[in-house]
Structures are given as C-alpha cells and as structure tokens.
Structure prediction request, 88 residues.
Amino acid sequence: MTSERTRPATPVRTRGVEADRALLEQLRQMAVHQETASVLEMRAARAPSDPLARVLGERAQEHRRRAERIRAELAGRGITRTPASRPT
Prediction:
C-alpha cells in the first residue's frame, strides 16, 4: 500500500489575517475614543461646577482628537472614506 504524503495545514492568508486583526484593533480603539468622548461630554453638561465641566470637556476633546487621528491614518491607507462624525 502506498502512503500519500500530506502537507501540514497552513494558513492561506497569514499576513492578511494579521492585517485584519490590526485593522479591527484600530477600529475598536477609534470607537472606544468616540464613545468615551460622548460620555465625558454628557458628564460635562451635568457637572455641578464650571471647573469640573471644563476638565471633562477637555478630556472629551482629547479623545475626539485621538479618534480622528486613527480615522485619518486609516483613510490615508484607503481603509475608511467616511468623514469623522460627531453624535448630535
């Protein structure tokens, strides 16, 4: 009886899968920054003092900037073409 040689299973798109994982991680980070900014803006609107509202607003702006940087990086690579949007 002749034995057939079998090759071990190898991933077809190893580099592609890793790139997809990296892309998903960037999209997740962008979403987290946008959601965090929204929460901070809501908290700032209800803050009992102006100094607290100002600090929360500044934090929200920083998260929006981080999300925008990720979006711009992805857009530069042709990944996303939608403009950054702010929830209303």
Notes: The mean pLDDT is 85. Residues 21-76 form one domain. Helices lie at 14-45, 50-76.
